Predict the structure of Dual-specificity RNA methyltransferase RlmN.
Amino acid sequence: MTAVSAHAPQPPAETGLAASLTAVERQRILAKSALFAPPTGMLPDGRRDLIGLSREELTEALVAIGEKPFRTKQVWHWLYHQGVTDFARMSSIAKPLQAKLAEQFVIGRPEAATVQTSTDETRKFLFRFRDGQEAETVYIPDRREDRGAVCISSQVGCTLSCTFCHTGTQKLVRNLGAAEIVGQFMAARDSYGEWPSPRGETPRLLSTIVLMGMGEPLYNYENVAKAMKIVMDGEGIGLSRRRITLSTSGVVPMMDQCGSELGINLAISLHAVRNDLRDEIVPLNRKYPIEELIAACRRYPAASNARRITFEYIMLRGVNDSEADARELVRLIAGIPAKVNLIPFNPWPGSAYQPSTREQLAKFAQIVMDAGFASPIRMPRGRDILAACGQLRTESQRERRGLPA
Ligand code: SF4
């Protein structure tokens, strides 16, 4: 099925008062996000982690130990193209400098506390960071081809309490830093030995990133953006922006910035088409209702027929899966270059919902397809290891006092 035309008239980007209100709201979100900041990349012994630094910061760090700025390119290549974790393996760098770098810096990776591989080859990593906090990362191989998606977490826990989501039952502990976000991808790649970074048309096993793990990435925008810029840098990992998808529950004020600054693909956790129901399932809807969310999708700069916005829709029996819901869904997204991922609900211990029946799933999908939208039913992967959508959760607890809920 092809998507609807991308040439339908698009509303203009916000102007005047609306734009300045959005800017104020964006500042508020960034200020709140800073309250949950990750620890710095400095180790107790005074060495600094080089992973997660922007190129400019890497240059500053090297200049600060008396090196010339041209070293940045060389070190960047070893960190992100070759993927080394030991300065002694940087063979184009003289041994005395290797030793000096090792005295001042480290090349960090999160520790894989557990690694579980499902019967369907999905692999779930529980990564432990330097302060002991943990987050989960899932690699989902494409069974037909040598490629796959890495589902990355952006926060430890989540503030949003979507009712179908196991992660939402875990309070937000803190944001993940850029090093920890890039580090999940790099450590997953270590596990598959996929270094140096494949170039050009060479197939990649870990070929796409989906920011769909624990947390709301647009509530940790600055760290996520920094990490994605590192991942996209053509002299390192070099993953194209077309191969990265950020999934949001609908943090409308940050969506425009994400589109214009990063230009990555967008997925929306929609899950309901009426505000009364979405207020309940995705409580963030009370702040940014469906109309505002859909308007932000219509003006999302990186969307086109070739790069459609994905609407994620979890199918909950008797709750959001009626034919009337399907018809309202296609009315809402008419004119947006979009596809709809229908996700059978994966029950988790204590969840209140049931998955839709196969018949209802098929009827819903048919209505969406008949309206011209691709609507694949996403088969749950890694169910036996609780790695499927909405099932991620760790035992990390919020320890610091005085943080807002
Ligand atoms: S679906 Fe995403 S935003 Fe909602 S509670 Fe789960 S992790 Fe948070």
